Predict the structure.
Amino acid sequence: MPQRRRRETGVSTLDRFFCSCPRGLEAALAAELGELGVGGVEEVPGGVAFTGGWADCYRVNLMSRIASRVLWRVGSARYRDEHDIYRAAIDLPWNTWFDVEQTLRVDVSAIRSPVRSLEFVTLRVKDAVCDRFRAETGSRPSVDTTDPDARVQAFLTDRDVTFYLDTSGEALFKRGARREVTNAPLRENLAAGILRLTGWRPDEPLVDPMCGGGTFLSEAAQMALGLAPGAGRRFGFERLAVFDTDLWKRTRAAAMTVPEGRPKPMLYGSDIDPAAIEATRANLEAAGVLDFVELRRVDALELVPPATPGVMIANPPYGERMGDTERLRAFYPLLGDRLKKAWPGWRAYLFSADMELAKRIGLKASRRTPLFNGPLECRLFEYKVVAGTNRGTAFAEQASPGS
Ligand SMILES: C[S@@+](CC[C@H](N)C(=O)[O-])C[C@H]1O[C@@H](n2cnc3c(N)ncnc32)[C@H](O)[C@@H]1O
């Protein structure tokens, strides 16, 4: 086990960090980081940079629901070719940031870079880190691509290379709770970011009528209860030589103090598939929020909303096989009719990669927000369902055959 100690790094007390996030959520992440009290927030495509100390880095890792990773910027340089990148990497004091007995992984990403092969750049950065270690300590760290102690990231633009050390370790959307996987579950940070874009407040009802594995419901419940998303997991910064245990303990204790007297959230989930309801139940239980969500098995086309209007959020299925596509084409107009008939006064949000949805649902979207689910371009469609005379009954009163 390598020795954990704080070392002289030559780094000033305020550092620059970069939080990556699903594309389209940059503004939502910037707003979240502002609420977490960090300064120098700057949005760029794919993430948000901020300036802060290690306490800020620890707090963002622990509390951000939208960030995928928090990267610590350790150096940057101009480059023209792979050799310049190697020189820039070997110039950095890697051995002051982690120990030679620890394992290493290098990842390289690029936008408009002239280099021919990112795989080759990855090898050259790994060689530079190892060569620097060998020069300083006489030996070199080993590579581990699955569970490395230190993750080095290099990011190339057309002429600059920037080096980062990853302070998160496993991506932050891995919240730490065991997860039952159903059909196409959303990543937790994408679901949390979408919830933020809906403007849902914890004192209004939230319904997911096609809840799948319950990602929206789990994130919403934790948000309403003020639970820290990273409370049950470890972080990459705990393995770095610059890790300050006392500062982490203090930061964690302060961040996890939840104000008393939060209202009980009004969260409702349903799905047509009994297996999805079971998966949602297991996931909510693992996250410690099962008691805060009402679940039932019911077809979204028959679901009766709770009496008080609020926010409906759904990620309808989208078909890859021909039969599915035909079935979905028939489903969207029925969903639109159901919304008009049974959900007046609600704000409904549908998140989908299927652009046919917008044409077929028969409702006019008041907002369409482009978002990426990994590489897949999606939209979040907002529908303000016009208020009519149709009032709902209590969610739990309706019949639910087979539930
Ligand atoms: C893409 S998945 C939702 C994934 C979910 N957002 C998550 O993160 O786990 C779509 C879900 O819609 C459900 N579904 C399909 N047709 C339905 C209907 N008519 N009524 C209710 N649920 C339906 C499917 O059973 C599936 O669980």
Remarks:
- The chain has a mean pLDDT of 91.
- Residues 2 and 326 are 58 Å apart (CA to CA).
- The two ends are 51 Å apart (CA to CA).
- The pocket of S-adenosylmethionine is lined by residues 182-186, 209-210, 212-213, 215-216, 271-273, 276, 299-301, 315, 317 (CB under 6 Å).
